[in-house]
Write a structure and sequence with these properties.
The complex is a heterodimer of chains A (about 425) and B (about 900).
Chain A lengths: L10 H6 L5 H6 L4 H9 L2 H10 L12 H6 L13 E6 L8 H8 L1 H15 L3 E6 L4 H16 L15 E6 L9 H8 L23 E5 H13 L1 H7 L7 E7 L6 E6 L4 H8 L9 E5 L8 E2 L9 H6 L8 E6 L4 H15 L5 H18 L7 H13 L8 H15 L1 H10 L3 H4 L3
Parallel strand pairs in A: 1-2, 1-4, 2-3, 5-9
Antiparallel strand pairs in A: 5-6, 7-8, 7-9
Helix pairs in contact in A: 3-7, 3-10, 4-7, 6-7, 6-8, 7-10, 10-11, 14-15, 14-17, 15-16, 16-17
Chain B lengths: L1 E5 L2 E5 L5 H7 L23 E5 L8 E4 L10 E3 L3 H15 L16 H9 L22 E3 L9 H9 L6 E3 L6 E3 L13 H5 L5 E3 H4 L9 E6 L8 E7 L2 E7 L12 H5 L14 E5 L2 E4 L2 H14 L2 E4 L6 H11 L4 E2 L4 H16 L7 H5 L3 E5 L3 H4 L1 H22 L6 H8 L6 E5 L11 E4 L2 H16 L7 H11 L4 E6 L5 H16 L5 E5 L5 H7 L5 H9 L5 E5 L9 H10 L2 E6 L11 E4 L8 E4 L4 E5 L12 H11 L10 H10 L23 E2 L30 E2 L46 E2 L28 E5 L13 H6 L4 E4 L1 H7 L6 E4 L4 E7 L7 E5 L17 E2 L18
Parallel strand pairs in B: 1-5, 15-16, 15-22, 17-18, 17-20, 18-19, 20-21, 22-23, 23-24, 27-28, 30-34, 31-33
Antiparallel strand pairs in B: 1-2, 3-4, 3-5, 6-9, 7-8, 10-11, 11-12, 13-14, 13-24, 25-26, 26-29, 31-34, 32-33, 32-35
Helix pairs in contact in B: 8-21, 9-21, 9-22, 10-17, 10-18, 13-14, 15-16, 15-17, 19-20
Classes of the chains: A alpha/beta (about 425), B alpha/beta (about 900).
Chain lengths: ~425, ~900
């Protein structure tokens, strides 16, 4: 009886104690899944496995990966020309550093995942759209790609099969919005990084007008394990309704901030208290951004929620990237909102009005409130604008929606702090010396 | 059709059209910014938000952008629901955060779409407390002002300029709330259609620079429907005036022709009307270069006496109206009348008319051009000779994207989706031309050669359409295959190289396509606003014969109407004739070399001060209306001629109104249709109830001349047209040919145009103006290929062969006397092959002198030019007239100093 892995994403790194190179990766059975799939299986069969495993997108939206792959037209329906697989490695969500870990420590896992995905959708061109500042990731991926190419795992006739795929690492010029898959495609084509109109959706018409699948790094890294260990294994890894493991991270005033691969559906309390070591002495937890900066605040009443897609959504937030930012009682909710809104206003691509003009106004209002220039009615102004800016569909893409999630929830969860700022004409936290 | 429900009311709309388009077409008020009927939807501004309901039971609904949502049967929306109204007011509030609120000093004020939309949404209270962001503005050349602080980031400028018009030097820079629309550095916006930014911009970022020099609010302008005099396309325009000065030219929507857009020659080329070179009085030459002002009656009497004496030859003009040409032809008789075109050009125009008649191929309107799916341009540089055609051709090739989108299920109005899916795939356009042109970027393949070889290429394509031998050159084979496999093939050619064989070849290609069972279209370009009118009127004398007859001394009097003969024949020929004739009478608006040799000069009204008819390349007759009463003694040429003839005892020119002349025009062969072009002066049955040229808010009428006379002048009564020189009258439901401006309640800007269309982007309300005089369809015989003399190419030692080269700014006579166009034109130039330039010792920036033309030209070197030939900027100083045949000697002019380019000026930045 072979004991199957419970940490398919990080076990090799732990075993090696550092970067997993080609030899170490292959020693651990690496590239076997891709080899088997590409030389012995069929694209539809691979798609079916991933669909049955219920792998959901780890970039934040949680869309079922196998279903997405199924949207790519097959055979003549695709028309002449390339099909593309694009790995979204533009990890720019504040507080998120999970993809970086995978790329820096186990780059072959991503390459193998991409080989399988490209085979499954019939892509002959694959790109890793890499965050520009990820120098170490680039270095590791570049060298891993060279090794893989040398071995014939990437390029013409992968593993000696009829299947060929070019893999290119594209380093992003750097905008948060380029993590949005259609803005990413525009940037990849050399255009302004602005989201595209949908339809057409990328699986039908994406990069250079051709069928394209965009998957997150962590999503693709889950694929080899599914092929190797099977659908049931993957489904059993999760605790609740979701399948597989998840890289969870915690930042904030905890004793051991970090990143852990845990069964998807692990509770927030377990992640914070067991893995992150709980709050530092003297600090009390007040708010949780569960999945990056663009998710709604949860509070201590949500600590026992499992971190899975459905549970967090039911609580009014999103699991997002699964990397939490914790707000303790020393942090001014208005100040943290300024910090967040500054980021989102700055990262607006400038295409649609509510996002372009609305976000800077809200940032200014928050600054006014924080610095004692708040006026009666400002909160209502914030509420009204944030509701209009944040409702999905009111803006061209979901950037502003994401921006409004932490603001609307902060206004709801920590309203007394906002009111106190206006009433006292300044920031009570500053006065307390924080 | 689909039934949609808007605020509980059912409407029948086009299925699949977007909801904004559908609502506006139904007359519903819904504000918008980024959408444009010609540019489609992109969903940037979020201004057209409505509530959409899932079904009849849904009472909440959700906000959705009308421009991005297809109208499907059963679609239920609300424009009036409070949430939708609040959201739209919020959008304005966001847009207004950084807007400078400088309406009182902004030239868009009073016709500003942003103002209109602000009022429409009801946003009144400013709640934003922050500082406004500011930008530095750029120098963009003589046509446009730039005031970026007013920008509301609707993206229409770059979408028009780059996507629609093929521009490359206007970009969007920056991100977040610091979007900047401009050039990388200060400099002229190069695109030939840049002036449309004035109308495309919903606020005052891009405004009309020549107009700013003597600015007037829209409501204080007096306007009339007009026809552009810049080329043979005949774009419809609104021309506006105040204080007797032409102020500006705006686009007048024509569904089949110019749509929403004009070229810069047309928009900025009318400034000659205000020129200080205008002839304002009747004058008699007393000694060289001096004219005495004559009493009008005396002048007319003198002309009458000449007419009585007989022996009169009349030279008309392709830049003058049908009315003036017919008046002169009637006066002198057909046998003594010359159309005023050069002999070469007239024979080409005749050839074009013969070809268009003989073929069953339709002459395409510009909307037909846009629906073609394969195009061959043979020898014509349309961007410089008929610029609006080139803009249409850009849409022709782009329409491939619409087909691809259709196959992919993407709505055609979903502009960004259509483009990102098409990824630059275009319908095939093949260009065979002498030199690279400004639309080469959209061509599937190019061929550059000398005119006769281009004609050969055309005949080869025709042969290859019939039967391919397999040994054809690539260009020929590909073009033939593309045309043959197209649904709507289009051939474009024209007169600009003065080569009969090229037009004949274009006809041969069309004939070959017809034989292959296709339904091709044939667009043939001639240079001037009424070239086709002149061609259809015809005359007994061609220019060279006329000049010869005059020079031989057998003619006592030569009457020239609105024509500078030096532009129509070689200088010597003209000088000989004009100096020989006893009486030279010139009627013209501007002082010209011909006018300065005249014995008797009459001041002619321009298109802006008279009413008349031009015939465009489609043979569409179109009426332009007098915008304002001319100053001093200026009058339409036909009136001078009619008065003098009547004075001389003639009873066949007893015309007092333009409608009388029009009757005479209509009686001419081919011209019966001109009556139906537009209503006559009796349109509303009363001289008291007319269509007002002045807007309902025209101000200062009682005081505007108070510096001259404090008594309010009596309003002139316009006996000539259905328009009045006042603000009173009926300005509704008239035929579109009579529309003096667009303005609708709540819609003060030109965006109100949709209120004057049958549906958004459709035909003009009351029908698109104009009547086609010629029906195509197998009348007469297709001209056969004429024997063309193949002469040897030239060289440095033997002299060069000259090939005419056209320029949008500079080749056309009248627009070249409009100051902003002058600023954009270069010096007269010659284009050499690199080898010839080297042999001649000439490099770019040097000058070469030509003793035959008696002028010096700036040297341009172009690798596409064939050795032994030289391209010459026709219409420019030194090359105004017909270029001489034969080998022409050229030499480097050591004394040449290039004229400093006004665009190179350094801008002080602060």
């Amino acid at each position: 009886m072979v004991t199957l892995s419970t940490k398919p994403l990080t076990e090799r790194v732990e075993a090696v104690g550092g970067v997993v190179d080609m030899a170490a990766y292959e020693n651990a059975g690496g590239y076997e899944a891709a080899r088997q799939a590409i030389t012995k299986s069929e694209p539809e069969a691979v798609q079916g496995l991933v669909k049955d495993a219920d792998l959901r997108g780890r970039g934040g939206a949680g869309f079922p990966t196998g279903v997405k792959w199924g949207f790519v037209p097959k055979g003549d329906a695709a028309g002449p020309g390339h099909k593309y697989l694009v790995c979204n490695a533009d990890e720019m969500e504040p507080g998120t550093f999970k993809d970086r870990y995978l790329m820096e420590m186990d780059p072959h896992l991503l390459i193998e995942g991409m080989l399988i995905a490209a085979f499954a959708i019939g892509a002959d061109k694959a790109y890793i759209f890499l965050r520009g500042e990820y120098h170490e990731s680039f270095k590791q991926l570049y060298s891993a790609l060279a090794d893989a190419s040398e071995k014939g795992y990437v390029g013409q006739n992968v593993f000696g099969s009829d299947f060929s795929v070019d893999l290119v690492i594209h380093r992003s010029g750097g905008r948060y919005i380029c993590g949005e898959e259609t803005a990413l495609l525009n940037a990849l084509e050399g255009k302004r990084g602005q989201p595209r109109t949908k339809p057409p959706f990328p699986p039908a018409s994406g990069a250079w007008g051709r069928p394209t699948i965009v998957n997150n790094v962590e999503t693709l890294c889950n694929v080899p394990g599914i092929l190797k260990n099977g659908v049931d294994w993957f489904r059993d890894l999760g605790i609740g309704n979701d399948s597989g493991t998840k890289l969870y991270g915690v930042s904030g005033r905890v004793k051991r901030p970090g990143l852990w691969e845990l069964p998807i559906g692990t509770t927030i309390r377990e992640i914070i208290e067991e893995h992150a070591g709980g709050m530092q002495d003297g600090y009390k937890l007040r708010g949780i951004l569960p999945g990056g900066a663009s998710t709604d605040f949860l509070t201590i009443e949500h600590l026992d929620l499992p971190m899975d897609y459905g549970s967090i959504q039911a609580a009014g937030s999103r699991m997002g990237t699964g990397t939490m930012i914790l707000m303790d009682d020393s942090i001014c909710p208005v100040a943290i909102s300024i910090n967040l809104q500054h980021f989102f206003a700055q990262e607006s691509c400038g295409f649609c009005t509510p996002c372009r003009e609305g976000l800077p106004w809200l940032e200014q209002l928050l600054i006014d409130i924080e610095e004692g220039r708040g006026q009666p009615g400002d909160l209502e102004l914030l509420d009204g604008n944030a509701a209009f800016i944040g409702a999905p569909g009111n803006t061209f893409c979901l950037h502003a929606t994401g921006a409004m999630e932490p603001l609307l929830s902060a206004l709801r969860c920590f309203r007394e702090d906002f009111e106190a700022h206006i009433e006292s004409g300044g920031c009570p936290y500053r006065e307390r010396g924080h | 059709m689909a039934t949609i429900v808007v605020d509980g009311v059912e409407f029948e709309v086009d299925e699949g059209q977007n909801l904004l388009h559908a609502c506006l077409s139904q007359g519903l008020e819904l504000p918008y910014f980024c959408w444009h009927p010609s540019l489609g939807s992109v969903g940037a501004c979020r201004q057209c938000a409505v509530i959409q309901y899932a079904d009849a039971d849904d009472t909440r609904g959700r906000l959705t952008m009308a421009c991005m949502t297809p109208a499907k049967d059963g679609t239920r929306i609300s424009i009036q629901t409070e949430t939708a109204k609040q959201f739209r007011a919020s959008v304005i509030e966001w847009l207004m955060e950084n807007h400078p609120h400088d309406c009182p000093v902004c030239e868009e004020g009073g016709e500003c779409h942003l103002q209109d939309m602000t009022v429409m949404t009801g946003h009144t209270q400013r709640r934003y407390r922050g500082r406004k962001r500011t930008f530095e503005n750029q120098y963009l050349g003589p046509f446009l002002n730039h005031e970026m602080n007013r920008c509301i980031t609707c993206y229409r400028c770059v979408r028009f300029y780059n996507d629609y018009a093929g521009g490359t030097d206007l970009q969007v820079f920056g991100s977040r709330d610091r979007m900047y629309f401009g050039r990388t550095t200060d400099g002229v916006l190069e695109n030939e259609f840049s002036g449309n930014l004035i109308e495309v911009c919903p606020t005052g970022v891009f405004t009309d620079k020549p107009f700013s020099e003597s600015y007037t609010r829209k409501w204080d302008l007096s306007s009339a429907p007009s026809i552009c005099a810049g080329c043979a396309v005949g774009c419809n325009t609104f021309v506006s005036e105040r204080y007797g000065r032409l102020k500006r030219v705006h686009n007048r929507y024509h569904g089949e022709l110019n749509g929403y857009f004009l070229c810069d020659r047309g928009r900025f080329g009318a400034g000659f009307v205000n020129s200080t070179d205008r002839i304002e009085h009747v004058g008699e030459r007393v000694e060289d270069d001096f004219f005495d002002v004559l009493d009008v009656e005396v002048g007319i009497a003198k002309l009458a006496e000449m007419i009585r004496q007989g022996d009169v030859v009349g030279i008309g003009s392709p830049r003058a109206s049908l009315e003036t040409n017919v008046a002169l032809k009637t006066l002198v008789g057909e046998a003594q009348f010359c159309t005023g075109m050069s002999s070469a050009e007239e024979s080409l125009v005749d050839l074009i008319i013969q070809t268009q008649r003989a073929t069953s191929a339709d002459i395409p309107s510009l909307s037909d051009v846009e629906s073609a799916d394969a195009v061959l341009i043979l020898g014509e540089d349309v961007l410089n000779t008929a610029p609006r055609v080139a803009l249409a051709l850009r849409q022709t090739v782009r329409n491939r994207a619409l087909n691809l989108a259709g196959e992919a299920g993407i709505p055609q109005w979903q502009d960004a989706g259509v483009s990102s899916h098409a990824q630059g795939r275009l319908n095939p356009l093949f260009i065979a031309s002498v030199l690279p042109s400004g639309i080469d970027d959209i061509a599937a393949d190019l061929l550059h050669d000398v005119p006769l070889n281009l004609a050969d290429c055309g005949f080869a394509i025709a042969a290859c359409i019939g039967e391919a031998t397999g040994s054809e050159p690539d260009f020929v084979r590909k073009a033939a295959a593309a045309l043959r496999s197209a649904q709507n093939p289009l051939i474009v050619s024209g007169t600009s190289t003065r080569t009969r064989a090229i037009v004949e070849a274009a006809g041969a290609v069309v004939a070959a396509l017809e034989s292959a069972g296709k339904v091709p279209r044939l667009l043939l370009v001639a240079p001037e606003a009424n070239s086709f009118g002149s061609g259809l009127i015809g005359g007994g004398l061609d220019m060279n014969t006329a000049l010869q007859r005059v020079a031989s001394g057998s003619t006592k009097t030569l009457i020239v109407a609105e024509n500078d003969i030096f532009r129509r024949a070689e200088r010597e020929r003209v000088e000989q004739a004009l100096c020989t004739v006893e009486n030279l009478v010139v009627l013209d608006s501007l002082d010209t070399p011909t006018a300065s040799l005249a014995g008797l000069v009459f001041p002619a009204a321009t298109f802006a001060e008279s009413t008349g008819t031009f015939v465009n390349y489609e043979t569409r007759a179109q009426r332009f209306y007098c915008v304002f009463e001319p100053r001093h003694e200026i009058a339409p040429s036909w009136r001078w001629l009619a008065q003098a003839a009547t004075d001389a005892g003639r009873d066949d020119l007893g015309w007092t109104h333009v409608d009388d002349v029009l009757e005479a025009v209509a009686a001419s062969p081919n011209m019966a249709g001109v009556r139906a072009v537009a209503p006559d002066a009796g349109y509303l049955g009363s001289s008291l109830c007319k269509t007002p040229r002045e807007t309902p808010r025209f101000s200062g009428r009682t005081a505007m001349n108070a510096n001259v006379n404090i008594h309010e002048p009596k309003t002139s009564v316009d006996e000539e047209t259905p328009l009045s020189f006042s603000m009173e009258g009926l300005n509704r439901d008239q035929p579109s040919a009579l529309l003096p401006f667009v303005w609708a309640p709540g819609w003060n800007s030109n965006q109100s145009v949709f209120k004057f269309q049958q549906e958004v982007g459709g035909a003009a309300a009351g029908g698109d103006p104009g009547v086609r005089l010629l029906a195509s369809g197998s009348i007469g015989t297709m001209p056969a290929r004429s024997a063309s003399v193949r002469s040897d190419r030239g060289g440095v030692d033997t002299g060069f062969r000259l090939i005419p080269v056209q320029a949008i700014f500079g080749s056309d006579e009248l627009s070249s006397r409009s100051p902003p166009v002058v600023e954009r034109s270069s010096a007269a130039f010659m284009i050499f092959s690199p080898m010839d330039a080297e042999r001649l010792g000439a490099t770019q920036g040097m000058g070469v002198s030509c003793s035959v033309l008696g002028a010096t030209f700036a040297v341009t070197v172009d690798a596409a030019m064939k050795s032994g030939y030289v391209g010459v900027s026709v219409g420019f100083t030194g090359a105004e007239g017909e270029l001489p045949d034969g080998l022409i000697g050229l030499a480097v002019d050591p004394n040449y100093r290039p004229t400093p380019n006004p665009h190179d000026r350094v801008i002080a930045r602060g």
